[in-house]
């Protein structure tokens, strides 16, 4: 009984338009910040290193480097304080949590980029290896 009530309450607080992003993606998180009486939007960009929870309690962690120091922020996915989430790059990751990036510095923190074929036809983005041309046989005299 209580599970049904909890599910009904959670369903009302879920956001409808959320981009699909995965672990290893580079994202810009636009958060609403209240300063005095003014509200402004602050952008936090970085790599998604973790996702946890489900439903309205789902959280994700974004990591970036600021002035040589690693900064991580955890965001509730369905929070009204989040104005927008933009996916900048899609990274290839074979892990659910990228906590090992905390121990790395410089270029070793980069992830391989996931590339999709972009083209009108299927297979248009694929490269085809050209066959070697045979040398003409020398004429014997």
Structure description:
By secondary structure, the chain is mostly beta strands. The protein has a single domain (2-102), classed as Roll (SH3 type barrels). Helices cover 9% and strands 35% of the residues. The protein contains one helix and five strands; from the N terminus they run αβββββ. β3 and β4 (69-76) form a beta hairpin. The model has no long low-confidence stretch (mean pLDDT 83).
Biggest sheet, in brief?
5 strands, antiparallel
Shape: elongated
Can you count the helices? 1
Radius of gyration from CA coordinates: 24 Å
SSE-based structural type: mainly beta
User: Can you identify the CATH class?
Assistant: Mainly Beta
User: What proportion of the residues form beta strands (DSSP E)?
Assistant: 25-35%
Secondary-structure map:
Blueprint: H1 2-13, E1 26-35, E2 38-52, E3 59-66, E4 69-76, E5 82-89
Antiparallel strand pairs: 1-2, 1-5, 2-3, 3-4
Task: Jot down its keywords.
SH3 type barrels, 141 residues, mainly beta, elongated
In short:
The chain has 141 residues and is mainly β. Helix content is 9%, strand content 35%. The chain is elongated and about 95 Å long.
